[in-house]
Amino acid sequence: MPLGDKRELAALLRQAGIATATAEAVMDIDGLMQKWRRRAMKRELGHRALLDLKVGIDLAQLDVLTAIDAPAPEFGESQGETMVATVAERLNIDPSRASRLVSEMVDQGFARRAVSQADARRTIIELTERGRVVVDAVRAYKFLIMGDFLSEWDATELAAFVPLLKRFGTWMDGIDPATEKHAGEIEALAKDINKAGKVSEPS
């Protein structure tokens, strides 16, 4: 069954036992997330922050400063010493690229190399005062812009939105039960792909 429009998708979800209102919400949310993803990939707010703050670095360099600054608690990371390898892991980039970007930040005075307190043979990376000011200013810029937007919401809307957003943010954490529940539908979709991929042989 081709799934080219919302009606066909809604029919599929209904057959899977998903209520019409829920199906409509799913499709609306998916459209919104795709829009967010395109805007996030453009890094519109980050570009604007660096421009308005007259920082003189690009987004890749800002990412490095942010990675030097803080751990990633969502991945179970705790605060500790940061090395070039740590920056590469936090940004999911090649270590050689991380090394080059870190060197640029050191050369421009936003970061510095230091000796590890835990192991004197190890070189760590720290923000300088200049780097710290940049990271804090960009964060404050983002909060000012978002805060201005959310100032138009009343307390009831905020009280409802934030917990629901946190709850929605976990929707991918445990998808195995859902894939098992809808194994039949998923198998049918895979068969549709397989059929569409076969080239008809000439008679």
Describe the structure.
The protein is mostly helical and 203 residues long. The protein has two domains: 1-42, no CATH class; 45-145, Winged helix-like DNA-binding domain superfamily/Winged helix DNA-binding domain (Arc Repressor Mutant, subunit A, Orthogonal Bundle), CATH 1.10.10. It has helices spanning 6-15, 20-42, 44-53, 59-69, 84-91, 95-107, 129-150, 155-168, 176-181, 183-197, and strands at 111-115, 123-127. The protein has a two-stranded antiparallel sheet with strand order 1-2. Helix 4 (59-69) crosses helix 5 (84-91). The longest helix has 23 residues, at 20-42. The model is unreliable at 72-78 (pLDDT under 50).
Task: State the gist of this model.
With 203 residues, the chain is mostly helical.
At CATH level 2, the architecture of the largest domain is Orthogonal Bundle
Level of helix content?
55-70%
Into how many domains do the coordinates divide? 2
CATH class of the largest domain: Mainly Alpha
Structural class: mainly alpha
Strand content: under 5%
Q: What strand line-up does the widest sheet have?
A: 1-2
CATH superfamily of the largest domain: Winged helix-like DNA-binding domain superfamily/Winged helix DNA-binding domain
Report the major sheet.
Answer: 2 strands, antiparallel
Radius of gyration: 24 Å
From the N-terminal CA to the C-terminal CA, the straight-line distance is 25 Å
Give the CA-based shape: extended
For the residues shown, what is the average pLDDT? 88
Q: What name does the CATH topology of the largest domain carry?
A: Arc Repressor Mutant, subunit A
- By DSSP (H or I, 4+ residues per run), the number of helices equals 10
User: Regions with pLDDT < 50 over 5+ consecutive residues?
Assistant: 72-78
Domain HTH marR-type: 6-170
Protein name: MarR family transcriptional regulator
Pfam families: MarR_2
InterPro entries: HTH_MarR-typ, MarR/SlyA-like, WH-like_DNA-bd_sf, WH_DNA-bd_sf
